[in-house]
UniProtKB/TrEMBL annotation:
Taxon lineage: Eukaryota, Metazoa, Chordata, Craniata, Vertebrata
Gene responsible for this protein: NAT9
Entries under SUPFAM superfamilies matching the protein: Acyl-CoA N-acyltransferases (Nat) (SSF55729)
InterPro entries documented for this protein: Acyl_CoA_acyltransferase (IPR016181), GNAT_dom (IPR000182), NAT9-like (IPR039135)
KW RNA-binding (keyword) present: no
Domain N-acetyltransferase: 14-152
Region annotated Disordered, chain positions: 184-203
Enzyme Commission code: 2.3.1.308
Keyword Ribonucleoprotein: no
GO terms for MF: tubulin N-terminal-methionine acetyltransferase activity
Record protein name field: Alpha/beta-tubulin-N-acetyltransferase 9
Amino acid sequence: MRINQNTALRGDKVTLVPYSSAHVPRYHEWMQSEELQRLTASEPLSLEQEYEMQRSWRDDADKCTFIVLDTERWSEQACGDEDCMVGDVNIFLTDPEDPTLEPSYRGRGFGKEATLMMMSYGVTELGITKFEAKIGQENEASICMFKKLNFKEVSVNSVFQEVTLRLDVTDQERQWLLEQTKHVKKKSYTEEKLPAGGLETDR
């Protein structure tokens, strides 16, 4: 999804930036972890397949992704994005006519803020009215976090070992979400960070 190709969302702990081809090698390195593959229900990909996936995330109208950076390290201007990466956060549009979105993350300690920021972006920029998260049953930390974000468990699939949680974005939920993310600053990614060694977004 190109809507976020020049968007940086800066929070207290994390900054969300568009997923560019320059992030792929580090991301690919992470995804070699069997534990991460298990927790995210992901299959190992070759580096070339990872580049193809990144292009798909950038171009497809039903997907939106950000790379999660450590705000403190990134703000120092001394290192490029790849040295500050701590995870990614994604939204999948399941029905463009009725935007039900599935946020997922691999936050490495920054998951709550990254997820709240992504949800707020989805509500304010994409018109999202409902979120759905599918999480592996053994990923108790993620299940617990989403429940703390007011998601309700709606089903358990024993075949896929997966729990589905849902959040309908009522006016009250929207206000709560905006209150939780009022500290977030939306900026131009290319203007925000282009030091020596910095990354440019894909064109």
